[in-house]
Structure formats: structure tokens, C-alpha cells
Amino acid sequence: MVNHLSKELALRLSLLFGALILMYAMFRNGQYQIVSMSLVVVACIPIFYKYEKKKLNIKELVLIAVLVTTAVLGRFMFYMIPALTPMTAIIIISGICMGPEIGFLVGALSAIASNMIFGQGPWTPFQMFSWGIIGLVAGLPWVQKKLNQSYLGLIIYGIVAGLFFSFFMDTWTVFSIDRYFSWSRYLALLVTALPYTLSYCFANAFFSCLLFRAIQTKLQRILVKYDIKK
Q: How far, CA to CA in Å, does 158 sit from each of 9, 88, 152, 182, 187?
């Protein structure tokens, strides 16, 4: 058993070392866009791997699928209004009610599922990571406690989530244009995207306050009725 575990660990370390060498080589050759996308994908792996190792509960999987579907529908229903969507709010509420792991999964899966409608591309891993992190942080115990206490906490977190999403996605835009990171380009994009960033923040705060208690009540009933442990 110990020998098997050491072989598995050695294999993982070898794969990690090989991936780092490959990314370093691409970095030296100016392939910054590929390197950045690879780092985002690698950053998502631990959460998916940790959840994959858990004992799966079909009821929990169905609930995650429902939350992802709700988030995707929220983005689809408001697609005519730029940057005004309840999708991020639903991801935040999922994290608060279901914990950090499910919060990350709902965020990441909602990104890739909704992009089947809006278009997949190299930006998808960046969206998966950013929405996943927003759901994960909302589910952390001390953050979860603050967000449960008052609407003010939801408003502040909604604004922070909007800023994080906009600032993080602008890094992808810089790489997609210049193939390397440029602070001047990044700052110019931040200024240009300011109206959209403010819309993100407003939508997150507004929909989080509007939907939180209703979704929380429904989820609590489902968790108790079907004996689903967070």
C-alpha cells in the first residue's frame, strides 16, 4: 500500500515538474497567453480532484446540477443587458448555502455550461477560475458567517466580486491583444471597462440581496428533506 502511494506521488511530482518545464519553455519563447491559460487550468485542478475523491451522493450531484442550471438561465435571460445578470449572485448564494467546494464547482461549471450558448474560447478557463473563486470564498466559514448576518455584507461582497471578476478578466484581454502582460494596456482597459465594472458590482449586490433569502430557504428545506450534508 505504502509502495503504491509512493509511486503515485512520484508520478504526480514528475507530471508537475514536466508541466513546469514545458510552461517555462513556452514562457521563454514568448507564449505568454498559453502559459497564463495553463496556469488557470492547473489552479482549478485541486478543487475538482478533491471533490472527485469524495464519496459521491447522487442527491448532491442533482442539486449541484440544478444550481448550475439556474445560474446559466440567469445569464441567458439577461443577455440583452450587458454586465447585468444574476449569475454571479446565484454562484455567491450557492457558496454561502452549500460551502466552498460546491461554490467553486457551481461557479466553474456555470461558466463552461453557459459558454455553450455564448461561445467557448481561450477565455473560458479564466471565467471558470474567477467565478469559481467567487463561489469558493463566499463559502469559507468566516465569510459565510458575515454574509449571513446582514444584507450589507452581501452588498460589499457583491461589489468586491464584481471588481475581482472585471480586473481578473482584463488580464486575459491584455494577453489576447499583446501576447504578454502590459501595465499600460491593463490600466487603459480598466478605465475603458469602468461602466461594465460598475454594472457587474450593482448587479451582484442587487441580485444577491433580492434572491438570497428565497434561495437559502429552498436549499435548507431540500438539505433537510433529502438528508444532504454540506
A: 39, 8, 10, 28, 22
Of 61, 102, 77, 98, which is closest to residue 216 (Cα–Cα)? 98
Write the burial class of residue 196 (CB in 10 Å: 0-12 exposed, 13-18 middle, 19+ buried): middle
> Is the separation of the CB atoms in 101 and 139 below 8 Å?
yes
- Gap between the Cα atoms of 197 and 119, Å rounded: 21
| Range list of H helices, 29-99 | 32-53, 58-77, 87-98
Give the per-residue pLDDT at 47: 61
Sequence-distant (≥ 6) Cβ neighbours of residue 92 within 8 angstroms: 103, 134, 135, 138, 147, 154, 157, 158, 161, 204, 208
User: Which segments of the chain have a pLDDT < 50?
Assistant: 1-2, 4-5
Q: How many residues does the chain have?
A: 230
How far is 228 from 221, CA to CA, in rounded Å?
Answer: 10
The angle subtended at Cα 181 by Cα 175 and Cα 185, nearest 5°, is 85
